[in-house]
Amino acid sequence: MKQKNALYILPNLFTTANMLSGFYSIIESYQGDYLSAAWLLVLAVLFDNLDGKIARLTHCESRFGVEYDSLSDLVSFGVAPAFLMYTFALSDMG
């Protein structure tokens, strides 16, 4: 039973890494380190691809995982890129 719990959490760890990459990208954008922010978004793509594959391989798909992945994608591929573009291109406009 303990191994099943460990497998259940594994895809969610990758989803969490995806979300943290997005949050850290926002922080780096705010600090003006745009290259690091962009690379963190690339890293988020990698984590996003891996979490679904791992969930299917370990047969640990869940409704929570689907919703958590959607929230993570919103942060990493919605908010973080928008904030990066704003701070890079538009912040000088006022």
Protein described:
By secondary structure, this protein is mostly helical. The protein has one domain. Helix content is 86%, strand content 0%. The protein has three helices and no strands. Helix 1 runs antiparallel to helix 2 and helix 2 runs antiparallel to helix 3. The longest helix has 29 residues. It is elongated and about 50 Å long. The N and C termini lie far apart (57 Å). 26% of the residues are buried. The mean pLDDT is 92. Belongs to the CDP-alcohol phosphatidyltransferase class-I family. It comes from Desulfurella acetivorans. This is CDP-diacylglycerol--serine O-phosphatidyltransferase. It is a multi-pass membrane protein. InterPro entries: CDP-alcohol_PTase-I, CDP-OH_P_trans, CDP-OH_PTrfase_TM_dom, CDP_ALCOHOL_P_TRANSF_CS.
The SSE string, one letter per element, is: HHH
Number of distinct beta strands: 0
Major sheet attributes: none
Uncertain stretches of 5 or more adjacent residues: none
How many individual domains?
1
Approximate helicity band: over 70%
Assembly annotation: single chain
Task: Tell me the radius of gyration.
Answer: 15 Å
Mean pLDDT, as a whole number? 92
Give the overall shape.
elongated
The computed structural class is mainly alpha
- Could you tell me how far the N terminus lies from the C terminus, measured between alpha carbons in angstroms? 57 Å
Question: Number of helical segments?
Answer: 3
Strand residue percentage: under 5%
Family: Belongs to the CDP-alcohol phosphatidyltransferase class-I family.
Membrane topology: Multi-pass membrane protein
Pfam families: CDP-OH_P_transf (PF01066)
Subcellular location: Membrane
